[in-house]
Amino acid sequence: MPIPSVGLVAYPNFDPFLFSIPHSVFTIPMPNTLFTLSTVSATGLPLSAGTFTLQPDGNFDLLEHMDIIIVPGWHSPDAPPSRELSAALIRAHKRDAWVVGLCYGAYVLAYTGLLDGKKASTHWQAESDFKRRFPCVALNTNSLYVEEERLVTSAGVGAGVDCCLFLVRQFYGLKIANRIARVMVMPPYREGGQAQFIEQPDPVSPQDARIGEVLAYVQNHLSEAHSLDSLAQHASMSRRTFTRHFEKATGMTVGKWLTSQRLRRGCELLEATSLSVEEIAEEIGFNTSNLFRHHFRACYQVSPRTWRKNFSNSNL
Predict the structure, then answer these.
(1) Highest-confidence range of 2-16, 244-258, 292-306, by mean pLDDT?
(2) What is the mean pLDDT of residues 53-75?
(3) At CA 284, angle to CA 150 and CA 290, rounded to 5?
(4) How many CA atoms lie within 13 A of 193 on its CB side?
(5) How far apart are CA 60 and CA 7, in angstroms?
(6) pLDDT at residue 200 is higher than 50
(7) What is the CA radius of gyration of the chain?
């Protein structure tokens, strides 16, 4: 396939650290070029942020043919994007490009109206302000990143890495994303949501620690049968208390989280082993291979066999 192109939007008083995250992920040295990246600004002229000066590759005209457009943060929640930038993002989404807002970059997508009626995420400190400004957006206050119809938004600075690795997985699969994560000495996938990073006025309770133990236990025993009752018992909690704490920690119900973990492990086995689909289904805890295929297609829109064909024999 053609090498995907990435457009990185620079703006006045840009955040150099946040800007560097997608720049690093999408230009990381690999045997083969994975992405081409261009930086753009309103005028194409140099921009400064503290002691950093950035020379963009051009103006917003460069965005017209980008496969991925990323707004890495934003200089002020009070400042809507220019009409030129808004129009460029809307046109890009209409032609099926991925449009991404990292951290406060979610404000830019929301101001354009692209997020109306859709799910989104942003930094937890902006929760109240974002909800007030954009009541038509379904803000997810826990997820590290959210994707809906190729519109991707993420939480704080660190979540920008998670979001960019997610985009790599969409184009190249788990194996390549994991390889990039290893080069960056980063986890390829972080469990949980923003709740674990939000400042708490009170010490973390022992119950929250027990949720973490349950998550680790399940991930190491995916082949076993798990139920809400059995996991609540494992955590020494009532069903109701466990459900509340689990959803706060993960942003998902037990069933959805368990399915997502099994599918993620299934992708890894499809790429890294020669196990049959039937053997993988048993390994990750699906009762039948048909059930595995059903959930896999519902999640990834392809069959396990197609996934293996696309990603198990990469030249990279």
Answers:
(1) 2-16
(2) 94
(3) 75
(4) 21
(5) 9
(6) no
(7) 21
